[in-house]
Each structure stands twice: as C-alpha cells, then as structure tokens.
Amino acid sequence: MEKGITLDQLNIGQTYESKVTITEDMIKRFAEATGDYNPIHLNEDYAKGTIFKTRVAHGMLQAGIISGILGTRFPGVGTIYLSQTMRFLKPVFIGDEVTSSLKVLELITEKNRVRLETVCTNQRGETVLSGEALVMPPS
User: Fold this and answer.
1) Exposure b/e, 31-48, CB count within 10 A at least 16 = b
2) pTM for the complete prediction?
C-alpha cells in the first residue's frame, strides 16, 4: 500500500471530499461492530414513534467514515488519528448521500500534526456533522 501525504506535501486550505450513500446494511454492520442496537437505528416500528418518524443512521457511522478517509485517503496510509471534536446537527437517513469534506486548517510542523475541519453534508446541502480532527500524517 502506498504511503499517504506527508506534512510537507499539505497546504493550509487544501481540501478533500468523498461521497457515500448510507445503506441499511451499513447501519446493521455498524450496530454489530459497536454493539449499538438502539432501535432508532434498526427498528422501523419503533422509529415511527420518534421525532424522526423513521430510522436514522448512527451519528458515529459518519465519524467512522471520516476515520476511514483519514487513514486511507487524506492524508492517508500511515496517518495517526489523535483527536476529533464533532457536533451532530441533523439526522442521516437510509439512502442519504453524505459528502465528507476535510480542510487543512493548521500545519504544526514542529510536532508533525495537522488540524483539519471535518464537515459532512447530505444531498440537500444540509450540514449533518461538523468538527475538527487532529492527525499525525505519515513522515
């Protein structure tokens, strides 16, 4: 596997974007992997009685997608994920196309760290997640 992008190859303002459609299978597999079997995610009859009126994806599923981008694509292989802040702003439903956008905010050269804005939007352009990540790119 090819090494990811190093600190000296990154620039403030540089961006990366990736799209994925959220499927029922993704939600089921995430529940199995994490043990989060909250019926809001898995049981349509239960979800009908909630404010959302239908099942919603786990918020942390979007966070996991960001983790996958960081570790395999941007900065990529060799990246160490150090921290993440996030706010879940809107629900994500089965069939939603979620765009994950990362933007380099700061390069901390003396510690080989990169601070990134992390934002997820749905197909309607609504922000569903916002936050910041701190990573150590490959050296």
Assistant:
1) beeeebeeebbbeeeebe
2) 0.94
